[in-house]
């Protein structure tokens, strides 16, 4: 069955959801999960659920740890001066995030490209930036813009392009219950927005087969 694709251009004005920076309060989370189980008509004391509040609390803390990450600390020592003015692309970056509307996961791949302005970032830092913003309560459009604007600002890049492709469990498990729908969002900044040829080059390159793919 052919997958359905929903394309969305991310808006530039996105609210700040940087969070408090404090670690999640596991005790409070456990208590709330216990109350939720009771509200669902379950018995939190039965064998299968005795440790569920603790497990769920730890899982939620892990899946939202991006609130505690600092981009400046992440990039410290990872920006390198270089005279290179061609496009740099890191594609097929796997990610998982949590829909802030239903607290259900959405997941997929992120493709990132930028035009350097006398400096580049260590390649491993781009997936780490993706994880920093993905491991929060999110919407796909905001995630897309946060990744793009962070790279544009921190690198002072001539341009940045970000494309996110994701499957949302809130569309697959409930609501419209469509199993093959993929949401695609993009954020194009600088030369990627103003120069169609640059944008087209980026979009073509991220569609090419990856290293190691079979013919």
* Amount of helix: 25-40%
CATH superfamily of the largest domain: GTP cyclohydrolase I, C-terminal domain/NADPH-dependent 7-cyano-7-deazaguanine reductase, N-terminal domain
User: Main sheet?
Assistant: 6 strands, mixed
Number of helices: 8
CATH class of the largest domain: Alpha Beta
Structural class: alpha/beta
The count of domains is 2
- Going across the major beta sheet, what is the strand order? 1-8-7-4-3-6
Multimer state: single chain
Number of strands: 8
Spans where pLDDT lies below 50 across 5 or more residues: none
Radius of gyration: 20 Å
CATH architecture of the largest domain: 2-Layer Sandwich
Q: Which shape, going by the Cα principal axes?
A: elongated
Order of helices and strands: EHHHEEEEHEHEHEHH
Strand content: 25-35%
Average pLDDT reading:
92
Our measurement of the CA-to-CA distance between the termini, rounded to an integer number of angstroms, reads 23 Å
CATH topology of the largest domain: GTP Cyclohydrolase I, domain 2
């Amino acid at each position: 069955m052919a997958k359905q694709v929903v394309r969305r251009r991310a808006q530039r004005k996105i609210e700040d959801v940087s969070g408090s920076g404090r670690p999640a309060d596991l005790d409070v989370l456990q208590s709330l999960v216990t109350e939720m189980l009771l509200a669902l008509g379950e018995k939190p004391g039965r064998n299968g659920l005795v440790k569920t509040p603790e497990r769920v609390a730890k899982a939620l803390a892990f899946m939202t740890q991006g609130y505690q990450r600092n981009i400046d600390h992440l990039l410290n020592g990872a920006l390198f001066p270089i005279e290179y003015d061609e496009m740099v692309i890191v594609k097929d970056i796997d990610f998982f995030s949590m829909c802030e509307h239903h607290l259900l996961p959405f997941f997929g791949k992120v493709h990132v490209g930028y035009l350097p302005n006398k400096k580049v970032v260590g390649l491993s830092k781009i997936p780490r930036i993706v994880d920093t913003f993905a491991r929060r309560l999110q919407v796909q459009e905001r995630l897309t813009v946060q990744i793009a604007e962070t790279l544009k600002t921190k690198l002072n890049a001539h341009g940045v392009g970000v494309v996110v492709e994701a499957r949302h469990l809130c569309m697959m498990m409930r609501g419209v219950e469509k199993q093959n729908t993929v949401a695609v969002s993009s954020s194009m900044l600088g030369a990627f927005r103003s120069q169609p040829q640059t944008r087209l080059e980026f979009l073509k390159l991220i569609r090419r087969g990856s290293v190691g793919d079979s013919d």
